[in-house]
Amino acid sequence: MTVNATAGRHQPSSASDPLPARRWLIVVEATNEDPVPVVESTVSHAIEAATWCQGQRRYDPPVGQVESGPGPSDLLIDMITAGPGPVTLPPTGSDDDAVVLIGSGCRLEERALAAMVNLIIGNPRIDLIYGDSILESSDGTRPELRPGYSPDRLAGQSYLGGVMAVRRRLWDVVVDRRSAEPVALTGHRRVMALSRAARAVAHIPRPLYRHSATGTEPPRRPQPVTADESSVSVIIPTNGTRRRVRGRDVCLVHQAVASIIDRRGRAGGSSPAPELVVVTTPGIGDTVVAELRQLVAAHGDDRIANLRIVHDDRPFNFSNACNRGAVMAGGDVLVFLNDDTEIIAADWLHRLVAWTSDPTIGAVGARLYYEDGTIQHNGLWTRGGHPAHRYEGREADDRGHLGSLTVAQNCLAVTGACLAVRAELFHQVGGFSPVFPSSYNDVDLCLKLLDHGYRTVIDPAIELFHFEASSRDPSISGEEMAVLHDRWRSVLNHDPFDNPNFDAPGSEELPLPIVDDLAVLHDHEVERPPVRVWPLESLVMA
């Protein structure tokens, strides 16, 4: 229904007052128990400065709140209430027309509509806008700071929240108004369909609304698309290091390979048996190699398809060693694995291959744990221009802000300690860059893939132990950092998958004061994703 908000309060302007060119519809999800005044109050902050024109509100966005926007008396607003199910909207006629979806119990902040209006009108490619929110509870209020647009996270978690603006032409194309099946106004299925069809998705990193319910649907870990029959090569550089792990003296590469064999057996043959390509460095003993061959031979071809030992006599350079292994590998999918790792999840290889079978995905990473079971890696982000491990040192059962540790999602990069990529893409971008002999070679590879249009995914269901720094010098050289910044300063300063209100290294729990920046974080039609063209100036990727 259309709420009659004029009774007893305002009178329409003269009928000769011309209608503006733009018309926005505010659709409020309401229950039968919600009286009209309650529904009206949902948008009262947004339209209290409006005047009336022919029975509708004429809205002038507050001057000075956003740099550019519609002129005075440029916008009409209709407010409509809707329950689950079909939503029939009156026709509009301008490309700048939009539908603002407000989920049940959400109340717009005062400046929210101005921000969405100006972003839609000023940027013709933006079709969908979402933002942050404020959760009100008995414990007080706290911000819910959402990440940049992550299509692979959205597939598993409806994290965009309860308020969004949708350009009208996108709504008309996507929303099936003939269906009688109940669909929540901002429900997962509808939001997925809208986001996939949008030309550009924008995130406003400041609260657009308040609410008292949870801001996201319960996180879940969907199985990725079914893995095809791609052949797999697992590439392990090693110098045969020994160390104590869980009180035992072990050869790290033997332990890593043994865990591959063991988990392969537990997985029940759900994916093709991998080829192992072990790249040895100068000085490795013959005994290490001989015992490795015996370990693999003892388990036959049902778990390991082939073992290649590749000798590299050059001084150790992690990038060179991985590239040499990739040249010798025969698999369609390359999995780079440190020798100081131990597989936990039985289906680890199946999930890695499944993600790489998506043609839009480049690198795929895993969750890694320290020996004590705390988190070492769940994707990489940048804080202050420096790559950092997300949630490093947190407990294994930590859910993260808005459940971010419980669902697969896109991130800037993943560690090379366990990284999968299709062989053709790896060679297309030139593999690992040898100018990074020990650090940041993985970040550089992921950014090269992103620069070519391929997303990086971190899947927390793929779990490994990582006894870090056992097989190489853990120090980071200033030269490697300088080269990384020279190549990728733009994206390192503005991580497209982060929220700019977070600034504590490795944490999503210590937000800074809310900022007023607007940031477009994804554009579906650009050939190159937002790597070096982060839209600080123009807002829109081109």
The total strand number stands at: 25
Oligomeric category: single chain
Which structural class do you get from the secondary structure elements?
alpha/beta
Overall helicity: 10-25%
Structure characterization notes:
Residues 1-21, 48-73 and 510-542 have low confidence and may be disordered. By secondary structure, this protein is α/β, with parallel strands linked by helices. It starts with 21 loop residues before the first strand and ends in a 19-residue tail after the last strand. It contains 13 helices and 25 strands.
Please outline the helices and strands:
Blueprint: E1 22-29, H1 36-42, H2 44-47, E2 51-53, E3 56-59, E4 75-82, E5 98-102, E6 107-108, H3 112-122, E7 126-137, E8 140-144, H4 151-154, E9 163-167, H5 168-174, H6 188-197, E10 200-211, E11 232-238, E12 242-245, E13 248-251, H7 252-267, E14 275-280, H8 286-297, E15 306-311, H9 318-328, E16 333-337, E17 341-343, H10 348-356, E18 361-369, E19 375-377, E20 380-383, E21 386-389, E22 409-410, E23 418-422, H11 423-428, H12 441-451, E24 455-466, H13 478-493, E25 519-523
Parallel strand pairs: 1-4, 1-5, 7-10, 11-14, 11-16, 14-15, 18-24
Antiparallel strand pairs: 2-3, 3-4, 5-9, 6-10, 7-8, 7-9, 10-25, 12-13, 16-23, 17-24, 18-19, 18-23, 20-21, 22-24
Helix pairs in contact: 7-8
